[in-house]
Amino acid sequence: MAFRRRRDGTYVEGLPALRRIIPHLMPTRTESVVYFPQRIEVDDLLVWLDEVNAGRADEERITLFHVFLTAIARTVRLRPETNRFVVGRRTYEHTEIAITFVVKQALRDDAPETEARVVLTGHERVDDVRRLVADRVHGKRHDARGADDRLVGFFASWPRPVLTGIAGAIRRLDHHNLLPSALIDAIPLYTSVYVANTGSIGIAPPFHHLYEHGTASIFVAIGRASPQPVVDESGRVVARTCVDLVHTLDERATDGFYFARTAEVFSRLVSRPDLLDDPGLTVDDIVPDWPPRR
After folding, report:
1. How far apart (Å, rounded) are the C-alpha atoms in residues 156 and 152?
2. Are strands 84-87 and 90-94 parallel, antiparallel or unpaired?
3. Mean pLDDT by 10 residues, the chain (294 residues)
4. Are 217 and 251 in contact (CB under 8 A)?
5. Strands (E), the chain
């Protein structure tokens, strides 16, 4: 029992037999990966953004990215199986909701990249998340070296065989739940969800891999908002503003049916951001018409 304990997760008891066996049949995230593309209409969201941003200074403006992060955290709180991960062929549930994303210090090819990690409760409103993200991004873009940057800087100049040995030692310690808390806190791959906002640089979302290191069972790539042909309620093809996403999932964490409803919760929260103003809403409040009729 002692080796089941982790600082960043709680061991999940009572899993069905098949879900306990799957990590032994597919021990890595690479062979357990599933890609789930999703398209969300955001015309109402863009109207809402124009309304809430009216009169705000540039540094206080809410963006699509803030809404997506808020919706991700809210969805994870409401659908806790999405906050699970597999380490050492055991299934755990994160003790917190953490989201990691890349921060480019300037929009130049040679500008350095770093990773920012925010811890949320899933009860935050969009403006709360905007403030948290602004604090993290401001520090990263002004060369405030966090624990992750210091760790990378410390090891980067070491000889290749030493780095290989250290990486292997980290993997083995993590497998047996013996990795020190300081390293878990310093490595941003120990997170609930990893997000890449590729739309901010004007490109479509990639089908991204999961990382073997760390505990992220979900990678979300967010594309740009652009007009797309959509069939409306009357059967006509019309142009609607949409955002394409690709979710990369570790299918060992939860099953496909559970994620299907989860994806619908997330879509509703993004397309109707007024729902994010009420942290007390349940899944049945957000998607009362589930499962969809054929």
Report:
1. 6
2. antiparallel
3. 80 93 94 96 96 93 96 98 96 97 68 82 96 82 57 70 85 90 88 94 93 95 95 90 97 91 96 95 92 68
4. no
5. 9-11, 33-41, 84-87, 90-94, 97-104, 113-120, 193-196, 218-231, 237-250
Report the amino acid identity of residue 267.
S
Q: In whole angstroms, what is the distance from residue 216 CA to residue 187 CA?
A: 11
CA–CA separation, 276 vs 291, rounded Å? 22
- Scan for tokens 């093809």, then name that residue: 237
Q: What distance in Å separates the CA atoms of residue 174 and residue 182, rounded to the nearest whole number?
A: 13
Answer yes or no: are the C-beta atoms of 170 and 43 closer than 8 Å: no
Specify the CATH number of the domain 2-274.
3.30.559.10
AA letter at 222:
I
Q: Which residues contact 66 (CB under 8 A, 6 or more apart)?
A: 126, 129, 130, 133
User: Tokens in use for 71?
Assistant: 């919706």
The pTM of the whole model exceeds 0.85: yes
Starting from the edge strand earliest in sequence, which strands make up the sheet with 193-196, in order? 33-41, 237-250, 218-231, 193-196, 97-104, 113-120
Cis ω before 291 (30° cut-off from 0):
yes
